[in-house]
Amino acid sequence: MGREVTSLQKRILGFISESIADRGFPPTVREIGARLRIASPGSVAFHLKALERLGLLERTAARSRGLAPVESPLRVPILGRAGAGPGPIAVEDVEGWLNLDRSAGRGAHFALRVRGESMTGAGILDGDMALVRRQEAAEHGDIVAALVGEDGVIKRLRRGAAGWFLSSAHPGYPPITGAFAIMGKVVGILRHYEA
Amino acid sequence: MGREVTSLQKRILGFISESIADRGFPPTVREIGARLRIASPGSVAFHLKALERLGLLERTAARSRGLAPVESPLRVPILGRAGAGPGPIAVEDVEGWLNLDRSAGRGAHFALRVRGESMTGAGILDGDMALVRRQEAAEHGDIVAALVGEDGVIKRLRRGAAGWFLSSAHPGYPPITGAFAIMGKVVGILRHYEA
DNA sequence: TTGACTAGTGTACATTTGTACACTAAACTA
DNA sequence: TAGTTTAGTGTACAAATGTACACTAGTCAA
């Protein structure tokens, strides 16, 4: 079995992601075969085994549809230059894929709604969702979720002469130099515009 | 069949989401039964039918694992006030669930990487991903992805005395009053902090 | 007291499904 | 020339799987 993914294998992986995005569940071996004109289930199994070996696919043995692309199944095409007009998106316009990462659901992350204007200078607005990876420490300059008394806040962690402190990114908000506990590091910001 | 979801049905829906988050694919009728101590597959089917009828579950008939919760399977807990320390997140701290919506993958959306500082005043930074819903028109005040010549840009759509134009949100960037085509409306912003 | 609804058991069955095996064939490499 | 890799067909089979059906039982409202 090869060390590099073939174009057919890429198409198989793409079809699996497409199936998950469209229907909510992965295809069967035979559904893959039907789409990619592979008549024999054994031949599809061969490619799935190769994809698993290459670390591009997780499989659950002997389970129907036991396929999970390692790159998230929630993929949105990232457009490069053009891509005008309605209709399907042309393949040549797709620069890559945005993965809304499935690993975020695995317990290591949580979300915190941002309250107030104290971080607008860093592009974090009131109402944004901060995606936080739980960890007890962070580095100078990281944006973190911290617990100050009873309140969870989103601030930038800094180290000064007097030790660690939390700084805001908006005029009029003084740094927090008192006691605080780090809940985790902010790894992403998600904002939703209504309607 | 009832008009309201029962607590058992909620647990079934939760288990389906859990299965997808953990393994990448939904459970079978019998797997649901095994987890929730329902011995008969017919009984599980009864609840799945009820969930479908209530609009909480999409089903693909006669397909193994043909289950897709309407609320996205990619769920991250949103914490309310407390929730400090390591370890599992306490149920009483969870304010709700952030759904990284599966519908985003269904062809109606694409992503565009934001280039430049022209929208920093609206909290949209260089390098952010804009999640765009494809549509040909938008309303006054909407943030849109538009095509100006060959370039895709993220701007705020406005209507003035002289007609529609695109405005930036940063000093020194003049409005775009020439020809442009709307590619879609920006429905979300996703930012990823590395490491 | 009848009906509707929730909740369940047990059985049955036709398909679906993953996997295994034997075999073929082209392209490339050592 | 022999071996490896990619790519495929066809067949077979046990197990998994969705669905259907007949039946039971408790609760609650009309």
Protein architecture, described:
The structure is a homodimer of 195-residue chains. The termini of chain A are far apart. Chain A is built from three helices and ten strands, in the order αααββββββββββ. In chain A, the strands form three sheets. A six-stranded antiparallel beta sheet of chain A has the order 5-6-10-7-8-9, with no helix packed on it. A two-stranded antiparallel sheet of chain A has the order 1-2. With 195 residues, chain A is of the alpha+beta class. Chain A has helices spanning 7-23, 29-35, 41-53; strands spanning 57-59, 67-69, 75-79, 94-99, 109-113, 129-134, 143-148, 151-160, 163-167, 181-192. The interface between A and B is large, with 71 and 71 residues.
Keywords:
homodimer; 195 residues; alpha+beta; 6-stranded antiparallel sheet; two-stranded antiparallel ribbon; 3 helices; DNA-binding
